[in-house]
Amino acid sequence: MPHDGKFEFDSVQDEKSIQAFLAALTEGFGKGRVVLRSESEEIVLCPGALVSFGVKAKRKDGESKMTIKISWKDAKSPIATGERTIQVES
To answer: Phi/psi of residue 52, each to 5°?
Structure first.
């Protein structure tokens, strides 16, 4: 695994850009390797077989927000799986 590091990126994007990002992220998870890169930063992440996954969404005063959190341990240690599921509809 590459050395420790931190990557942050904030910007305003259109719907097609978000779709492309999520598709690339999905592909990276399928390959077991996600590379995040901007002009001056890069981080390589190698997701484990089991990951912790959370979604928060809210709408207030005409603004909507969705936060997706995905995390895992780099070390190969057993993790209990949960029985909870989530569905996304479009």
So the answer is: -85, 135
